[in-house]
Model the fold of this input.
Amino acid sequence: MDEVRLVGENIEIGVYPIAKAKQFAREQELDLVEISPKAVPPVCKIIDYKKFLYEQKKRDKAIKSKATKVTVKEIRFGPQTDEHDYEFKKKHAIKFLQEGAKLKAYVFFKGRSIIFKDQGQILLLKLAQELEEYGKVEQMPKLEGKRMIMFIAPKVKK
Done:
């Protein structure tokens, strides 16, 4: 690597030897900063490096503030959860999805209750069907150890 593509203000855009690019930077009392190292030849820009870092930090902060933070709420069932408990937990699930949180619903199998895997799956699929208008299933019920887990993401409001 003995040549760089030079871009920026007050400079003629083109490919120059590194020594020449450094000389241009010194003449303007600025820094030679590598912008795109993977390009052939690498792209450099003559700018104030401190100002460049400041702008980059400001840009990263703006992007971070716009990012939405996803919260995951959990609801636990047993393989033989009765109707009243199921309805009670379903109301909470609806509330969580309306607030924009992801829902992690799982059936926990204790001891020998693992023989009721199909009941647990039926319970989770029933829940997914009843929550269809509030969220969509992100991951179908899957058995992981003693838990059968299903994820439901909230529907985006238009």
User: Anything to note?
Assistant: The chain has four helices and eight strands. Helices lie at 18-27, 49-66, 83-98, 117-130. The two ends are 52 Å apart (CA to CA).
